[in-house]
């Protein structure tokens, strides 16, 4: 003979979603969306900073190389 608890649980499982369940699901989805957006923004910022650093290093290296070449030509 099944216990009354199991029949109550079956009824609960068959009930349509309550307002609280819908609100909780919507809040969880919003939190997930916010987390994904924050992660994407952080990744974009890191990539932009990395590109800027690479460009600055390349420009500095180019300036140093040109300066060395100029010194070589002026000393010769």
UniProtKB/TrEMBL annotation:
Protein name per UniProt: Transmembrane protein
Taxonomic lineage from the root: Eukaryota, Metazoa, Spiralia, Lophotrochozoa, Mollusca
Keywords: Membrane, Transmembrane, Transmembrane helix
Residues that span the membrane, as ranges: 20-39, 45-65
Organism listed in the record: Elysia marginata
């Amino acid at each position: 003979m099944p216990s009354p608890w199991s029949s109550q649980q079956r009824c609960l499982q068959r009930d349509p979603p309550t307002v609280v369940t819908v609100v909780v699901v919507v809040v969880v989805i919003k939190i997930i969306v916010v987390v994904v957006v924050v992660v994407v923004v952080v990744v974009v910022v890191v990539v932009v900073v990395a590109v800027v650093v690479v460009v600055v290093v390349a420009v500095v290296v180019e300036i140093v190389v040109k300066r060395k070449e100029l010194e070589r030509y002026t000393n010769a």
